[in-house]
Specification:
The complex is a heterodimer of chains A (about 300) and B (about 240). Chain A is built from eleven helices and 14 strands. In chain A, a hairpin with a 2-residue loop joins strand 4 and strand 5. The longest helix of chain A is centred in the middle third of the chain and has 15 residues. Chain A is elongated, with a radius of gyration of 25 Å. Chain B is an all-alpha fold and about 240 residues long. In chain B, helix 1 packs across helix 5, helix 3 packs parallel to helix 7 and helix 7 runs antiparallel to helix 10. The longest helix of chain B is centred in the N-terminal third of the chain and has 29 residues. The chains are: A alpha/beta (about 300), B mainly alpha (about 240). At the A-B interface, helix 3 of A face helix 1 and helix 4 of B.
């Protein structure tokens, strides 16, 4: 099921929590929702799930407007809110059965779905305990299980991996990736490697506005604009190397990083690659090219660039 | 309807799991038993085989117990944030409110069921008017519905259970006693209006065995109004 968000806005008093954002998520796509605290991630997610009303614009889920059909659309959505609120006095199995019934899972299928969720979320050892007795990680699993209990077309996960240990994080990410093949998933997170590991597409919002939208690759290209290479060239005079490389048309700038070990940082002209030119130039001058490392702009840097200004 | 029942069942189970139900049952039966059979103008004082004494006691005990039962219904969900999970399930706000209402009313009904031995005892002692007694019980149940509606409304306004409890008592106090007292001291139409609004007038006529559609409408509209306002205060979050 496709989610289409058109000019979505939400104001609290005079403050704009979400300010005119538009995007689409298709079936089989996992969208990573990034942004600093208070950027409007949770507010947007709450509007998609119908928990809070839509301020301006509209959200369409499979061509139906959330404004008009919110109650009807709820059954297609599995939602894990941030902070993962649960009934602590209920045993895990009872709680999941309760959620399944509320979501309209037919009675004869409830046992199957429960078993499936207990297996998928690794809750077997804890299934008869009260939720209040569980550790944070297991509670998070219960939260995921209740979101997926009715096998929804759409999953909205607000920080799904908080409180999990590294092993669990890997498992849950794998689970989300598997689910994402057939479903529409929107997940929000602060953990940048997580979006790279799990998401097909990244959406960065800041102060209620979209500041970036694309795959990790396209974001990197946009952010740096040009190629950055770290090279080590031996057997040559550093000054001569710098001036030699600078004369190449595909290179914009050369910096000496460390004269003694002859390391240089090369900024290419955007839209072309300088690797071949560097090699040929070294051969022509009789220099020894012993290292050539393309520098990837880290997602952290992109994030900081986009959200600090 | 189905969703209302699912929620009511969970709420009822949670009443019994958290011991609230047992405490409420013991206190209710203890208080009303003591004042009905042992203390003050008790049942033997009247010289009549009637449960009037019990109805007078239950009129007060339920007034205090129902806010204690309803105070957590929505306030706690709001405080812990579970309201967000509940309201994003495939159910409506109305079903949530009605489910909570039904669970409280069922618990009160269970408490009243435990007083059946009173009926049997009094029936053995003398010639008990069964019709009048059943009408009195029906009155208690209707009054409980009205106070449950008010209690759930109070609980929907806040995330603090104490505020919800006191709020419900405060609103309830007007219907329970203040309107009645005021109507006695006022003449003309204001006195008449207040007398209609006073819950005690309606309850007393039912406890005497008079089944009047006006009383029925009064109690049910109070309950509906409470639930409607509670639903509105939940829905308010989604009005931009």
């Amino acid at each position: 099921m496709q989610i289409r968000i058109e000019h979505l806005s939400k104001h609290y008093a005079t403050q704009a929590a979400v300010n005119d954002i538009s995007f689409e998520v298709g079936t089989g796509e996992i969208l990573g929702f990034l942004g600093p605290n208070g950027a409007g991630k949770s507010t947007s997610m709450k509007m998609i799930t119908g928990y809070i009303g839509i301020g301006g614009g509209d959200i369409f889920i499979g061509e139906k407007s959330v404004r008009q059909h919110s109650d009807e659309l709820k059954k297609y959505i599995g939602y894990l809110p941030e902070n993962n609120p649960l009934y602590l006095d209920m045993p895990v199995m009872d709680y999941l059965a309760f959620c399944a019934r509320l979501q309209g899972v037919p009675t004869e299928r409830i046992t199957d779905r429960l078993r499936e969720m207990i297996r998928v979320c690794g809750l077997n050892a804890e299934k008869h305990k009260k939720i209040g007795e569980l550790s944070k990680g297991y509670r998070q699993r219960v939260g995921l299980a209740q979101a997926m209990i009715h096998d929804p077309e759409i999953l909205i996960l607000d920080e799904p991996t908080t409180g999990l240990d590294p092993n669990q994080i890997v498992e849950i990410r794998q689970l989300i990736r598997d689910l994402g093949k057939a479903k529409t998933v929107i997940l929000s997170t602060h953990i940048l490697p997580e979006v790279e590991a799990t998401c097909d597409r990244i959406l960065i919002i800041n102060k209620g506005k979209i500041v970036a939208n694309g795959t990790a690759e396209t974001l990197r290209q946009k952010a740096s604009g040009s190629e950055i290479l770290k090279v080590r060239i031996e057997e040559g005079d550093p000054q001569a190397i710098v001036s030699g490389l600078k004369s190449l048309p595909s290179i914009k700038e050369v910096q000496v990083l460390d004269g003694a070990s002859s390391r240089f940082e090369i900024h290419g002209v955007s839209g072309s690659t300088a690797k071949k030119d560097i090699f040929h130039s070294c051969v022509a001058h009789g220099w020894v090219l012993s290292e050539l490392i393309p520098v990837e702009t880290r997602l952290e840097d992109i994030f900081r660039n986009l959200t600090l200004n | 309807m189905h969703a209302i029942w699912i929620i009511a069942k969970r709420e009822l189970a949670s009443f019994f799991d958290s011991l609230i139900a047992y405490i409420m049952l013991i206190l209710f039966l203890g208080f009303s038993g003591f004042f009905t059979w042992l203390f003050g103008s008790n049942i033997f004082y009247t010289g009549q085989a009637s449960l009037q004494a019990f109805f007078n006691v239950a009129y007060w005990t339920l007034f205090f117990f129902i806010p204690a039962l309803t105070m957590r219904s929505l306030a706690e969900e709001r405080k812990t944030g579970t309201i967000e999970l509940l309201l994003t399930k495939a159910i409506t706000d109305r079903e949530v409110v009605w489910g909570k209402f039904l669970s409280t009313l069922l618990l009160v009904a269970i408490a009243l069921l435990f007083t059946i031995p009173y009926i049997i005892t009094v029936a053995k002692l003398g010639n008990l008017d069964i019709g009048q007694t059943l009408c009195g019980y029906f009155g208690l149940l209707l009054m409980s519905a009205a106070y449950t509606g008010i209690g759930i409304f109070a609980s929907s306004l806040t995330a603090n259970q104490i505020v919800a409890f006191l709020g419900a008592l405060f609103i309830g106090l007007f219907f329970h006693i203040i309107f009645g007292v005021l109507s006695d001291s006022l003449t003309g139409w204001p006195g008449h209006v207040l007398e209609i609004l006073s819950l005690s007038t309606h309850f007393k006529s039912m406890a005497r065995g008079v089944l009047d559609s006006r009383d029925l409408i009064y109690f049910l509209s109070l309950a509906f109004l409470g639930l409607l306002l509670a639903e509105f205060s939940l829905t308010k979050r989604s009005i931009a």
